[in-house]
Design a protein that fits this description.
The complex is a heterodimer of chains A (335) and B (234). Chain A has 335 residues and is mainly α. Chain A has one domain: ABC transporter involved in vitamin B12 uptake, BtuC. Chain A is built from 13 helices and 2 strands. A two-stranded antiparallel sheet of chain A has the order 1-2. In chain A, helix 2 runs antiparallel to helix 3 and helix 2 packs across helix 10. The radius of gyration of chain A is 21 Å and the shape is globular. Chain B is of the alpha/beta class and 234 residues long. Chain B has a domain of 123 residues: P-loop containing nucleotide triphosphate hydrolases (Rossmann fold), CATH 3.40.50. In chain B, strands 6-7-8-3-9-10 form a 6-stranded mixed sheet, with helices on both faces. In chain B, strands 2-1-4-5 form a 4-stranded antiparallel sheet, covered by helices on one side. The chains are: A mainly alpha (335), B alpha/beta (234). Chains A and B meet through helix 7 and helix 8 of A and helix 2 and helix 3 of B.
C-alpha cells in the first residue's frame, strides 16, 4: 500500500505533468531543429511565433464560442487551431519575404541570421501583445478531468490522489499525431525528402534541381504549424501569457541541442529529457520518501531546487551537453 | 563538331584568372581525361564547363547548342551530369533516396533508370536501404555516380572520382566508367591518377597553369616521352 501510494504520488506530480510538458517542448524543439537543419540558423523568434499563433488561436476560439460552436468535452481551441496555424504561417512567410530572404540572398553568416531573428522576436512579441494584451488568459473549456482526484481515491482506496487533466491527454495525443505526420512527411513524400536532401547537402540539392525557395517556404509553414500547436497545447495545459513563451525559449533550445540540432528524433528525446529533469529536480520528494522509507521523517522538503529556479535546470543541462557532447545525444550538427 | 565543345575558356573566381584560354572537347560516347600538376586548374576547368564559374572569354557548347550563359541547374536539364569531388552524396539519406533525389527534375517514371544504376553497381542494390554516409569510400563514389546518372545525362562529368579509394576500388570504378561510356554517354573526368586514367581515355588533356599543354589521345600521351617525363613520373 505504501509502495503504491508512492508510485501514485510520483505519477501524479512528476510523470503526468512532465510527459505533457515534454510533449510541448518536443513540438517546440522540432520547429527549432527543423529551421536549424534547413535554414541553418537558430531561430530566436520561435518562442514568440508560438505566442502569436496561440494568441490568434485564442481569438478564433472566442469567436467560435460566441457563435456557440464547440467540441463538447474537448476544448474549442482544437477547432480554432487550424485557423491559428494558417494565419501564423502567413505571418512567418511574410517575415521571410521581408526580412530573412535578403540575408539568404547575400549569403550572410548564420550568427547574423540569428541576430536578425532576435529582432523579429521583439517585433512578434509586440504584435502579440497589441493583439491580445499581456494578461493571463485561461481558454480551456470542455471537460476538465479525464481522471479526477477524488474519484480516483474513492475507486482505489489509496491516500494519494491521481488527477489527469483533459488538456494533458490532448497534449500527448496531439503531439503524437503531429510527430507521426511530420516523420511520415519527411520520410515518404517527395517534398519531405527534398527538404532532408537540402538539409544534408545544400549544394548537391541545388545541383539535383531542388527548388530552394519551395523548400524554405514549406519549412516555414511546418515550423509555424509546430509552433502554433505547441503554443496552444502549452496554453491549454497551463495558461496563456504573452511573456511566458519568451521564457520557454530556453528549455526549447536546450531540448533541441540535447537531442542534437537538426535531428528531429533528437528534438523529441531532448524535450522529454528536459521536462523530466525540470520537474524531477523541482519536485519535493519528501512525500514519496516518507512512503518508501518506514519510520523516517525527512527534515526538509527534499526538493533539490525551488520551482522559481526551474530554468536553471535547462541551462545546466545545456551547458553540460555543450561541454561534453556538443553534437547532442543523437547525431546532430555541432553548434 | 564535338558533342561537348568548351573552347578558349578564360576566367577565375576573383580578379585573377585561373583559366587562360583552356579548351576541352569530348566526342559522343568517349572518355576525355584532364590531368596535370596540382593547381593547374583541372577542377576549375571542369567547373567552368558546368557553369559554376563565370567565364570572361570563350564559350561552352553542348550538342551544338551554346550554353555559356546557363546556370548549372539549367545545364543539368540540358543533359549534363556532375559528380563533385567531395560532399557528393546525401549522407543521412538511404542509397535509394539518394538516387531518387538525383531524379528530382524528372517527371516520368525513373524506376527503369534506377534499375540500370543497380545493374551497373550491384552493391548499391544490396545496400539500398542503408544511409549513404555509412558506406565505404568506394561505395559512396558509386552512389555519387549513380545519383548523377539518374537524370540520364548525355555528358557525365567526374571530378576525381577515385580520390581516397584503394587501388582495387579505383580499377573497379574505372571499369564502370568505361561501361557507362559504352552506353553512349560522353565522359569528362579530372584525375589525379594520371597514368591509369589516360589508359582508359580516348582523349587526354594535360593542363598547366590553366592552359592546354598537351592534347592528344590517351595512348599517344602515354607514349610521349616528354609527357611521361614531366607528368607521369618517367
Amino acid at each position: 500500500m505504501e509502495f503504491l501510494n508512492a508510485l501514485v504520488a510520483i505519477l501524479n506530480y512528476v510523470v503526468v505533468p512532465a510527459t505533457a510538458y515534454g510533449a510541448q517542448l518536443a513540438l517546440g524543439a522540432l520547429g527549432v531543429t527543423l529551421i536549424y537543419g534547413i535554414l541553418r540558423f537558430s531561430n530566436f523568434a520561435h518562442g514568440d511565433t508560438m505566442a502569436f499563433g496561440t494568441g490568434i488561436t485564442i481569438i478564433v476560439t472566442w469567436g467560435l464560442q460566441a457563435l456557440g460552436i464547440g467540441l463538447g468535452p474537448l476544448p474549442t481551441a482544437l477547432l480554432a487551431l487550424p485557423f491559428g496555424i494558417a494565419i501564423t504561417a502567413a505571418l512567418v512567410l511574410a517575415t521571410d519575404r521581408v526580412v530573412y530572404r535578403y540575408y539568404r540572398k547575400v549569403k550572410t553568416a548564420p550568427v547574423i541570421l540569428t541576430m536578425v531573428s532576435v529582432g523579429v522576436m521583439f517585433v512578434m512579441n509586440g504584435v502579440t501583445r497589441l493583439l491580445i494584451g499581456v494578461d493571463e488568459i485561461q481558454f480551456a473549456d470542455g471537460e476538465r478531468f479525464v481522471v479526477a482526484a477524488r474519484a480516483f481515491k474513492a475507486a482505489t482506496g489509496l491516500n494519494e490522489p491521481l488527477a489527469i487533466r483533459t488538456t494533458q491527454v490532448i497534449t500527448v495525443v496531439v503531439a503524437g499525431l503531429v510527430v507521426w505526420a511530420l516523420f511520415w512527411f519527411l520520410a515518404r513524400t517527395r517534398t519531405g525528402k527534398s527538404m532532408r536532401a537540402f538539409s544534408d547537402n545544400e549544394d548537391l540539392a541545388l545541383l539535383s534541381g531542388i527548388n530552394p525557395n519551395r523548400v524554405v517556404a514549406v519549412t516555414w509553414i511546418i515550423a509555424a504549424a509546430l509552433a502554433t500547436t505547441a503554443g496552444t497545447l502549452y496554453g491549454l495545459d497551463k495558461s496563456f501569457k504573452a511573456f511566458n513563451y519568451f521564457q520557454l525559449l530556453l528549455p526549447i533550445f536546450a531540448a533541441a541541442i540535447v537531442g542534437g540540432l537538426g535531428n528531429p528524433l533528437g528534438a523529441i528525446a531532448g524535450g522529454f529529457v528536459i521536462a523530466f529533469s525540470e520537474v524531477g529536480v523541482t519536485y519535493a520528494w519528501k512525500k514519496v520518501a516518507t512512503y518508501l522509507i518506514p519510520n523516517w521523517e525527512a527534515e526538509g522538503l527534499m526538493q533539490l531546487l525551488s520551482t522559481e529556479y526551474k530554468f536553471a535546470v535547462s541551462f545546466a543541462i545545456l551547458i553540460i551537453v555543450l561541454l561534453f557532447k556538443p553534437t547532442g545525444l543523437f547525431k546532430g550538427k555541432s553548434v | 563538331m564535338s558533342f561537348l565543345d568548351a573552347s578558349d575558356m578564360t576566367g577565375g573566381y576573383g580578379a585573377a584568372d585561373i583559366l587562360h584560354g583552356c579548351t576541352l572537347k569530348v566526342e559522343k560516347g568517349q572518355i576525355a581525361v584532364i590531368v596535370g600538376p596540382n593547381g593547374a586548374g583541372k577542377s576549375t576547368a571542369m567547373k567552368a564547363v558546368f557553369g559554376m564559374l563565370k567565364l570572361r572569354g570563350g564559350h561552352v557548347k553542348l550538342d551544338g547548342e551554346d550554353i555559356t550563359a546557363l546556370s548549372p541547374q539549367e545545364r543539368v536539364r540540358k543533359g549534363m551530369g556532375f559528380v563533385p569531388q567531395v560532399n557528393n552524396v546525401f549522407p543521412t539519406m538511404s542509397v535509394e533516396e539518394n538516387l531518387e533525389m538525383g531524379a528530382f527534375i524528372r517527371t516520368d517514371d525513373f524506376r527503369p533508370t534506377m534499375e540500370q544504376v543497380y545493374d551497373l553497381f550491384p552493391i548499391l542494390r544490396d545496400k539500398r536501404h542503408q544511409n549513404a554516409g555509412e558506406l565505404s569510400g568506394g561505395q559512396r563514389q558509386q552512389v555519387a555516380v549513380g545519383r548523377a546518372l539518374m537524370t540520364q545525362p548525355k555528358l557525365l562529368m567526374l571530378d576525381e572520382p577515385t580520390a581516397g579509394v584503394s587501388p582495387i576500388v579505383m580499377d573497379e570504378l574505372f571499369d564502370r566508367i568505361i561501361e557507362v561510356a559504352r552506353t553512349g554517354i560522353s565522359i569528362l573526368m579530372v584525375e589525379q591518377n594520371a597514368r591509369q586514367a589516360l589508359e582508359i581515355a580516348d582523349q587526354g588533356y594535360v593542363l598547366v597553369q590553366g592552359a592546354n599543354k598537351y592534347t592528344d589521345t590517351g595512348a599517344a600521351l602515354m607514349a610521349d616521352p616528354e609527357v611521361r617525363r614531366t607528368f607521369l613520373g618517367g
